[in-house]
Amino acid sequence: MMSRWSRPIAAFSLFALGLLPGTATAAPCGNNGSGFAAWKAAFAQEAARAGVGNRGLQALANAQYASRTIAADRNQKSFKYSLDKFMQVRGASTIVAQGRTRKARNPQFYNALEQRYGVPAGVLIAIHGMETGFGGFMGDSRVVSAITTLAYDCRRSAFFVPHAIGALKLVDQGTITGDTRGAKHGELGHTQFLPGNALKYGVDANGDGRVDFYDQADALASTANYLRQKGWQPGQGYQEGQPNFRAIREWNAAGVYQKAIAIMAAEIDAGG
Ligand SMILES: [Ca+2]
């Protein structure tokens, strides 16, 4: 899932400022790579206190400052488009056409997800198509390096720190390794979960005993689970102004993205 324009999270507390006895000062953010090594050393202590184990801490130690991630973060354009332009640029008509084919080819799979989580096929398929072209391109940035770089970077450190902790815990669990690739903001797999959300909402749907965001069944079930946990009401509408649009808003904070998903989903669910 993408993370653009997410609401800022207030991180002001005596604990964070290191003003309470016995607490360490938070690792200092930076605006270029020069302070990353020092930040990693300080952040390792925060991570350990948050419950990250040896494998996660080793992945943190090996993380590299992700210049491409920062370049991408400083240059986000597409959400400034109008809805029509956004849908055109993102290939909405192609996603709808391919999405209808995917739904028709595998109805039992999507029916099972709707029965379990209440989220209709069109919504999951629209998200899948929008995020990665149905798994066609899931990114080539190292997830741990990308997400720790964003946690270090001053611009949105408070937002990304929990996701960095989440990524390190995913390493501990064996869900990812320090070498796992994702999108430039550390998003994972078919539907681009940020690591903290992956940790919290991940589901093993194919029954192999592990959550794998690079497996379509696991990724789409996790996406449905996320929407359900964010208040999706089975059988209710999901267009703007209807009850389930709120859950789509939780998935991505950009208004044009939310509207595009709702429109494409309805077209997919209406069939061809
Ligand atoms: Ca699995």
UniProtKB/TrEMBL annotation:
<feature type="domain" description="Transglycosylase SLT">
    <location>
        <begin position="36"/>
        <end position="239"/>
    </location>
</feature>
<dbReference type="InterPro" id="IPR043426">
    <property type="entry name" value="MltB-like"/>
</dbReference>
<keyword id="KW-0732">Signal</keyword>
<protein>
    <submittedName>
        <fullName>Membrane-bound lytic murein transglycosylase B</fullName>
    </submittedName>
</protein>
<dbReference type="InterPro" id="IPR031304">
    <property type="entry name" value="SLT_2"/>
</dbReference>
<feature type="signal peptide">
    <location>
        <begin position="1"/>
        <end position="26"/>
    </location>
</feature>
<dbReference type="GO" id="GO:0009253">
    <property type="term" value="P:peptidoglycan catabolic process"/>
</dbReference>
<dbReference type="InterPro" id="IPR023346">
    <property type="entry name" value="Lysozyme-like_dom_sf"/>
</dbReference>
<dbReference type="GO" id="GO:0008933">
    <property type="term" value="F:peptidoglycan lytic transglycosylase activity"/>
</dbReference>
<dbReference type="Pfam" id="PF13406">
    <property type="entry name" value="SLT_2"/>
</dbReference>
